[in-house]
Write a structure and sequence with these properties.
The chain has 8 helices and 12 strands. The protein is an alpha+beta fold.
């Protein structure tokens, strides 16, 4: 039974010690809460639980505290994948929903599993997700001051449950000030992927992650016999020709946990009941 979460890349943490410590403490709190939850729940339920907690914390760019796009609106994306059934569900550019990952969870039971824009919003409302503003004063100030492109943030969780099943969930509030309609990697197999062998969640520049098909490549390589470390090494090397910017967390079906980023600034935390690890 293992769990690892990430809180994206946070450039402000490099210069603001208070923010860095707050994020580290939040990640440790959330990963330990999620581990306790995992003791009595499936990997699928646990990754939704963990990512919901991350979405509810304004320190992270997902759910509450999401970035504001160039037209002044917040649009979020999230996805969920069950490694045992190989079913992925997600929402793209959904608005005014507190927990996009929970909408993705409901979509697991539908034939049409990935919805975007107004269709995603309509689906959420029809299934009891009330209108909720995820805008925070800090994001409003950033938008008004037009301070673009400093915080590349996404949150994610990979879990291995007591039955050996793997699940992964990823959620993002976008990169901020993007063109309305821009699609991130978080609700694609490039940013969120799992099967019975491995689960991977990504953060970074969505366009780079999609170009590198990163999550799907890592999982495929582990499935084909690569170790997690070797799968990461080969996949991240393939980002170098176009200077791809990405960070990833993963767990395989043997309980191995791994993480890597293009630059040493991804924040993550892992916990196995005894050993904790947090980095920023």
């Amino acid at each position: 039974m293992k769990i690892i979460i990430h809180g994206g890349f946070f450039s402000e943490s490099a210069t603001n010690h208070e923010t860095k410590v707050a994020k580290q403490q939040a990640l440790l709190r959330i990963v330990k809460d999620a581990y306790d939850y995992l003791k009595t729940h499936s990997a699928m339920d646990t990754v939704v639980h963990a990512v919901s907690l991350l979405e509810d914390d304004a320190l992270f760019n997902a759910g509450i505290g999401s970035q504001i796009q160039s037209d002044g609106k917040i649009r979020m994306s999230a996805s969920l994948m069950d490694g045992s059934t190989m079913k992925m569900s997600g929402v793209m550019n959904i608005e005014e929903v507190k927990n996009p990952v929970q909408v993705a969870q409901v979509l697991q039971d539908y034939e049409d599993k990935v919805l975007g824009g107004s269709g995603a919003i309509k689906f959420a409302r029809a299934h009891g997700f009330e209108k909720f503003s995820t805008e925070t004063p800090q994001r409003s100030e950033e938008y008004e001051a037009k301070r673009a492109a400093t915080q590349i943030g996404t949150v994610g969780c990979v879990a291995l449950d007591t039955n050996g099943k793997i699940a992964v969930a990823t959620s993002t509030g976008g990169k901020g000030f993007e063109i309305p309609g821009r699609i991130s990697d978080s609700a694609t197999v490039a940013g969120n992927y799992a099967n019975q062998f491995c689960g991977v969640s990504l953060t970074g520049v969505g366009e780079d992650i999609v170009s590198g098909a990163v999550a799907a490549k890592i999982v495929t390589r582990v499935t084909d016999g690569f170790s997690l470390e070797k799968a990461f090494e080969k996949t991240f090397n393939e980002l170098k020709p176009f200077d791809g910017y990405a960070g990833a967390i993963a767990i395989d079906n043997k309980g191995n946990v791994f993480h890597q980023d293009s630059y040493p600034s991804m924040v993550y935390a892992s916990f196995d009941g005894q050993n904790e690890e947090v980095f920023n």
